[in-house]
Amino acid sequence: MQQQAQAYSRSEASGNEWERGYDQRSVKAMSDLPKVRAHLTEVWQHFGMSAKDAATVASAYRVGDTNLDRASSLTGKSDAEIASMLQSSLSAKNYVLADLLMINYERKRIHTTAGN
Questions:
Q1: CA–CA separation, 20 and 60 (whole Å)
Q2: Using a CB cutoff of 8 Å and minimum separation of 24, what contacts does 89-98 make?
Q3: Domain extents for the chain?
Q4: Does residue 56 contact residue 93 with C-beta atoms inside 8 Å?
Q5: Which of 19, 22, 85, 91 is 20 to 30 A from 76 via CA?
């Protein structure tokens, strides 16, 4: 019985460590949110959006949207296909999806540029 109690105590401590880590990651993500949105605004402007429209689209990004896999995979897609996907999400005013696609596109571009 004592061993079970110790094992439970260790699992509780481990769970508490995970919770503390999660809380720390959440706080960091919240503090990074303005930076991410500012970068997205710049990227959207680079692709021809007005400052106001770019800020509107970028403001849809939420910390909880960090699951970038929710957006369709860009693997094997040409730039034209990706542009079509972005345009479609923007036309549907699905700015969250547009932001996720743009982040994935930027990662793909950086990964390709780095030669990895």
A1: 27
A2: 90/57, 95/56, 95/57, 95/59, 95/60, 95/61, 96/60, 96/61, 96/62, 96/65, 97/70, 97/71, 98/57, 98/60
A3: 2-113
A4: no
A5: 91
